[in-house]
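Justification of resources, computational component.

The compute hours requested in this renewal are based largely on the per-chain cost of generating structure records like the one below. Each record pairs the submitted sequence with a full structure-token output. That output is archived, and it is also reused by downstream analysis tasks.
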Amino acid sequence: MILLTSSARALRSSLSSAVVLLTVVSTSLAAQQNTGTVAGRVSGPDGNAIPGATVTVVGSPITSTTDRSGIFRMSGVPAGAQRVLVRSLGKKPSERAVTVPADGTASVVVPMELASTQIAGITVT
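The structure output for this chain reads:
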């Protein structure tokens, strides 16, 4: 049976902590290297900006909302082929393919079309 002195136990504890810390840091760095950013602009059929549109990376929880200039930006998007879905009240949903570079930014312009809306008839007596 090997008995450890208090200094040996402290050293062993410090080494264990260092290994855990290195594992966390390397995992975090690997995740950062495999992600990028998607940025772009959403516009209507007239070319004007669509503020308040919801932009989502399909199949992920990553989402953004366009500003009053129709601009959006989403970081932490997995690198590689992705699909971006845009929804806005009164417009047809629009989906675009985008290739996200690791540690880079993919730009996408998303034009939207008006959605036809039916309103129930009104009877005035």
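The longest strand covers residues 35-43. Residues 6-33 form the longest helix (28 residues).
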